[in-house]
């Protein structure tokens, strides 16, 4: 299926490079199907230039800045991903920038950009530079937290669909999800485990408050069943009494 922005993304960059064999066409092939394409981010959004004028598409006068040097990559991506870049630069990965440490494209790719999920943390990718042990511990802690967020989010959606006021729980979950996302570039195992544990504790509190809604709903169902049963018995008694008099 074509992404929603497929036609809008067919710029002169895509048209020219997409038809090129070999090295010139590789970036377009990698970009297709990426999270950038899915969200309507095309060549000129990162590299600048004029996407409607083939002659001046790569003119600095039209804002073309080309590809960044390795040390400039975080700032290049950080024009859009501001908070993520801050988190990266504070991490051990970011502090090793320029001395062999990974940049954004090392883990996320330059053109075949993948969605930022925990799937990115895997032995093949992390094992390229170091042992997977620490990364596995980080992934385990974050996977458990992400699973709790998904379950609670589903419960809130269900209750909201039933007309329950879930506004405060939604806001609490939103804040915790954002805090959780800020851990994605943290590579300090102890801190990730500690912070994930704290987040899960707060998620449990939200989950318990949602359970109260369920308990109240079950009580209402039980009382409703008793009322219906009593009405049926009353109707039966009335019917029998009427027959007796007749």
Helix and strand arrangement:
Layout: H1 12-18, H2 26-31, H3 35-38, H4 43-47, H5 73-78, H6 82-90, H7 92-95, H8 104-108, H9 123-126, H10 133-161, H11 167-181, H12 189-245
Please, could you describe this protein's structure?
61% of the residues lie in helices and 0% in strands. The protein is built from 12 helices and no strands. Helix 10 runs parallel beside helix 12 (189-245) and helix 11 (167-181) runs antiparallel to helix 12. The mean pLDDT is 90.
Based on the model shown, name its key terms.
mainly alpha, 246 residues
Q: Please tell me the overall pLDDT.
A: 90
What is the count of DSSP helices, taking H or I runs of 4+ residues? 12
Cα distance spanning the termini: 74 Å
Structural class: mainly alpha
| Low-pLDDT runs | none
Q: What's the main sheet like? A: none
Shape by Cα distribution: elongated
Summarize the structure in short.
By secondary structure, the protein is an all-alpha fold. The chain contains 12 helices and no strands.
